[in-house]
Amino acid sequence: MSYENQVAPLMPDPEPDSEPLPAEAAGNRPAAPAKSARLGIPRSWWAWIGSPVALLPFLVLALITGVLLNASALRNFGWSFWSFNYNFLPQTPDQSSWGIGVFVLGTALTAGLAIVFATLLSLALAISVVVYLPSGPSRVLNMLTNLLAGIPSVVYGIWGFVILAPYFGITVEPTLRAFLFWLPGFGGPASEIGSWGILLAVFLLTIMIIPLTTALMRSALQSVPRDLVDSAVALGATRWEVTRRVRFRVARRGLSSAILLGLGRALGESVAVAMVIGGVTSIPVSLYSASTSLPSFIFFQLDSAFTYPDLLVLLVEFALVLLIITMVVNIVAQRLTQTELATATTVGTLLSEEGELER
Amino acid sequence: MIGAGLAIAIGVILLVAGLGGGYLIGKGAGGSSNGPNTVTITETGSTLIYPYLLVLAPSFESVYSNVVLSPAGTGSGTGISSAESGTVDLGGTDAYLTPSVAAQHNLINFPVAISSQLAVYNIPGITQHLNLNATVLSMIYQGAITQWNDPLIQAANPGVSLPAHTITPIHRTDGSGDTFMWTSLCYMAWSGWKQSYGTSITWPVGPGAQGNPGMVQLLSTTPYGLAYIGISYLSEIEAASGLQWAALGDNNADYNGIVSASGAGQQNYILPTAQNISEDANLGLLNLQPPSVAVSLILGGVPGATNLVNGKGGTNATAAYPTPYPDTNLEYLLVSSAPASPSHQTWVLAFLEWALAYGGTYAPKVSFLPLTPAVIGYDMLALDQVAIGG
Predict the structure, then answer these.
(1) Which end of chain B has fewer CB atoms at under 10 Å, N or C?
(2) CB distance B208–A53 less than 8 Å?
């Protein structure tokens, strides 16, 4: 017997038999059903309108990629494009260095740390909601987490900008430095401690992606078949053993996909990060350093780029790189959810230490 | 077969969407009109000019009841590019277009107000206005001066006990006219300034902040910090505790801060008072040859022009006293000299004339200074040019 472990991305609580997203479904089999054999015109008006609409995402994606490629003309900035040396000289653009390294590093640091923290917190939240809490508190917790997802990122940004930044600079960062100086990244020079920087950006990003990762993890854990769980309980497994050995193993792909989708969200976030990251294009020396990221840099330099054509081309190429990175992350995440688990799994193999999940 | 169906369907959708959009746009424009023959003057650009135009709009519209002034604060870069492409009537910018670029796009630099910039610091224990000259500021932002009690700073501030503490120079993260002014100052004042000047450069040292409000906020939480902030934010600076601004040195010194024998006297330190700022605007124009409003008033010079000071800029090193505040700027509206619709352009010109005549009384509301007679004189000449072009 085989179990599907399908988690529809961005759908917090999919029904067991929920239909796949209409756009995807129609995109996979365009206009195949209900089609007139002679004229090739779909009989149903809905199909007639629906099928081109289903093509829209492809068109938009192609259009964006095309426009970016066209605007940049893939201008070759030389090998220094892949370096950490960014030095823009507006009056002598020919002598500028256009390294993308610092921006990729800042993006990776902020998004990477945020997804680590968000994973830990979301997993705890999802487990307690799915496994431990009774349905009343669970529902309240779910509602609150989902509410968090509805807050626009600029609201997070202005909260960080006005309220959190001074608090971080005066209280949080000096305290962390005093106690965690032995941890790499936490013991930076005192001069680097300021209101805005990586730590604040990581904090905001973590809160922003928790609703998404929690919802996805929750449904991944819930999708574990009831009879598997019941059998494990019948065999005498404790709740924690059921969670760790059965739920985690069966929902492993769903959980990984949740993490990756959260990462994709964090990588692309521009406004909130831009408001608190500090926008410094040098390599950070600690978590307190001001830094920069690909999306926030593009956001901030757009107006200047109208004045300096070289900068505009550079921003477009940065956007292309960002597009590729987020695409890869999202595609991997989608593949993870869509791969069916062809498992001939028994509770016995799951509960045994050597239990193999796949094949 | 499917392709034909799709093509028809997409066509229908686009057509419907287009009609709907057009209808909405038409409805929106009609909704804001006062009458059947309403003219809308569109402006986009500098976020510094934007509040000024918002103040001007109601008064102007009360006189010209058939005209609506519609400004937008999008940034100087957007203002310039929109004016060049002709999608707006007026492009607001903190930096002038060089005469050759302006001529290429049939645009005219039209100054509407004078603004200024402060060097603000947060030094615990120091409440008075320090004396700082542009060379010292340039060295601080390059990382060549790192301590507040540096001998060069101490020499300009005899009797002040400066702390032996590291300076944190703060810069703007977003592209901005303020950065353009500040980097022009750094560029012209010291030959050791390795960065260029522009609305966005790569800074060798120090953290960044977003917008003038961000500069005020970050500086107030950064002891021993230094920041450049537009004078429009004077009240916010005064409200924040511990912030004070510097008196800036004029250009009677070389790039080592040493007064030359041929200079007009020793270096003077000038506070950004209304009189000192206006004086800078006047002298900047009067000393420029050939006369033009495409003038940087920073240190009384044009970047790139020959200079008595250090070969990088400055034209009025022998300015008469009282010497002007060196970090001053004209705020421009770019207007076309070859408009697509001459009849529409008459209303744009009517607004510019009205702004010349009456704008001065509204300028102080946004901490701008009224145009001085010298600038107004050049504006009048510019208006003639527009009229001929139209």
Answers:
(1) N
(2) no
CA of A91 vs chain B CAs: smallest distance (Å)? 6
On whether residue A19 sits in a domain, the answer given is no
What are the backbone angles phi and psi of residue A145, rounded to the nearest 5°? -65, -40
Say how far apart CA A22 and CA A90 lie, in whole Å. 49
Which residue from B6, B74, B196 is facing A90, i.e. has the nearest CB? Answer: B196
A59 within some domain:
no
> What would the pLDDT profile of B34-83 be if each residue is shown by its tens digit?
455 789 999 999 888 898 999 999 999 999 999 999 999 888 888 999 99
**Cβ–Cβ gap A303/B217 under 8 Å:** no
Q: What is the pLDDT of residue A341?
A: 54
- B50 to chain A, any CB pair closer than 8 A? The answer is no
Note whether B168 contacts A165, CB cutoff 8 Å. no
B198 contact residues in A (CB cutoff 8 A): 90-91, 304, 307-308
A10: left (phi over 0), alpha (psi -120 to 50) or beta: left
Alpha-carbon torsion, ordered A106, A109, A115, A117, to 10 deg: -130
Tell whether the model's pLDDT for residue B20 goes beyond 50.
no
Segment holding B211, helix H or strand E: helix B211-220
Residue A53, in any domain of the structure: no
Q: A313: domain CATH number?
A: 1.10.3720.10
Report pLDDT digits (tens) over B173-222.
Answer: 888 888 988 998 888 778 788 888 888 898 988 888 888 888 998 899 88
A161–B210 C-beta distance less than 8 A: yes
Q: Do B200 and A311 touch (CB under 8 A)?
A: yes
CA distance B74 to B43: 10
Confirm if A91 and B197 have CB atoms less than 8 A apart: yes
Domain count, chain A: 1
The pLDDT of residue B274? 81
A9-13, A343-347, B99-103: which is most confident: B99-103
C-alpha pair distances (Å), B282 with each of A25, A327, B72, B325: 70, 56, 29, 11
Contact (CB<8Å) B222/A290: no
The residue whose two tokens read 């001085």 is B372
Smallest Cα distance from A167 to chain B, Å = 9
| More confident of the two residues B289 and B314 | B289
Residue B1 — pLDDT band, cuts 50, 70, 90?
very low
Please, which residues have CB within 8 angstroms of residue B319's CB and are 6 or more apart in sequence?
B250, B264, B283, B287, B300
| Chain A contact set for B166 (CB, 8 A) | 191
Contact B198 A90 (CB under 8 A): yes
Question: What integer is the mean pLDDT of A87-97?
Answer: 85
Dihedral of the alpha carbons of A79, A85, A86, A87, in degrees to the nearest 10: -100
Exposed/middle/buried for residue B131 (C-beta within 10 Å: 0-12, 13-18, 19+): buried
Q: Is B10 in the A-facing interface, judged by CB distances under 8 Å? A: yes
Locus of tokens 């997804």: A115
Interface test mutation site (partner A, options B202, B219, B334, max chain A beta carbons within 10 A): B202
Q: Which residues of chain B have a CB within 8 Å of the CB of A90?
A: 196-201
Quick check: is A238 in a domain? yes
Of the candidates B243, B212, B217, the one whose C-alpha atom is nearest the C-alpha of residue B367 is B212
Which residue is closest to A158 within chain B, CA to CA? B214
Minimum mean pLDDT among A149-163, B207-221, B375-389: which range?
B375-389
Give the model's pLDDT for residue A170. 85
Residues from chain A contacting residue B202 (CB–CB below 8 Å): 86-89, 281
What is the Rg, in whole angstroms, of the alpha carbon atoms belonging to chain A?
24
